[in-house]
Amino acid sequence: MIAKLEKRYYAGNERVWVGEYKNLHNISHWHMEHELILCKTGTAHITLNEHEYSLTPGKGLLCYSGNIHSINAGQDCVLFVSLIDERTTTSLTCGRMPTQSLFHDDGHIQNQLMEIRRELYEKQPFFEQRTLALMILILVDIYRAQPLIGCQQENAQVNRYKQLLNRVDTDYSSITFDDAVEFMNFSPAYFSRYFKKQAGMTFSQYLSTVRVEKAVQLIHSEPNTKITEICANCGFTTIRNFNREFRRITGYTPKELPKNFVLNTRTLPAIYGSFDPTLSGTELIDYVDATNP
């Protein structure tokens, strides 16, 4: 699961966003906002940095800015997901954070999140200020429920891993397994275990996915370029291997690829562009549908 920086842009001056998702599945990603995830129905499994969590109704998770995370919701699972400008907590906690990422909700937090959704939808005067005030109340309740500790510095290993993914995104045609091992300064065996745990796939599978994604982009942007040239430009050594990996990942041969096809694990340059980590099958529930079941 490809971890990339997700950049989110807001429509106005609001510093909070809340969405309600059904069957949410997204690939490993991170962003500069904090993320609050609360389970409404069903079960969701979440990977946060190097830890795994299971959310059931009334359970939530607070993911801090820069943390790598992914969400795999069960069938008919509904989650509230909120993104919070990191400046909100800087002044609130003075560099402190709860000892545990998990929190419990008796229904109060869910009601406040629904109220924030209403405010964001209706955009009445001062809605930016009210949504921020409501979110601060939510965070205060979470912080009060357990002891606080100093904010932890990002694990150097995780930071290096992010740098490696950025390098793969730019050097996909030439980078090798040995290059990645050397970059991380791991033994080959430890690197293989670490990468699969973090990414959800082997380095070879990850690299093939990135290369196929680049090939999809080239097929769309340069339709007159020969497939053999695209194959070589994307780092595949043989056309046979290229065709096999292309079909395995996209479900099509390069010549059969629909004009509007977009790879689910789509990525743009990690620092300079935007990235949508959400996979197909996920439903963002409309505010009107959520309030009128």
Radius of gyration using CA atoms only:
21 Å
The topology string of helices and strands comes to EEEEEEEEEHEEHHEHHHHHHEH
Name the shape in a single word: globular
| Number of alpha- plus pi-helical segments | 10
Strand order of the largest sheet: 11-7-4-9-2-13
Q: Helices and strands: which structural class?
A: alpha+beta
Q: Could you explain the architecture of this structure?
A:
The chain is of the alpha+beta class. It has 2 domains: 4-153 and 277-291, Sandwich (Jelly Rolls), CATH 2.60.120; 156-250, Arc Repressor Mutant, subunit A, CATH 1.10.10.60. Helices cover 41% and strands 21% of the residues. The chain is built from 10 helices and 13 strands. It has a 6-stranded antiparallel beta sheet. Helix 2 packs antiparallel against helix 3. The longest helix is centred in the last third of the chain and has 19 residues, at 203-221.
Please outline what is shown here.
This protein is α+β, with helices and mostly antiparallel strands and 293 residues long. Helix content is 41%, strand content 21%.
Could you outline the blueprint of secondary structure elements for this entry?
Layout: E1 4-5, E2 16-22, E3 25-30, E4 34-41, E5 44-48, E6 51-55, E7 59-63, E8 69-73, E9 78-84, H1 87-93, E10 96-98, E11 102-104, H2 108-122, H3 127-144, E12 148-150, H4 156-171, H5 177-184, H6 188-199, H7 203-221, H8 227-233, H9 239-250, E13 283-284, H10 287-291
Parallel strand pairs: 1-3
Antiparallel strand pairs: 2-9, 2-13, 3-8, 4-7, 4-9, 5-6, 5-8, 7-11, 10-12
Helix pairs in contact: 2-3
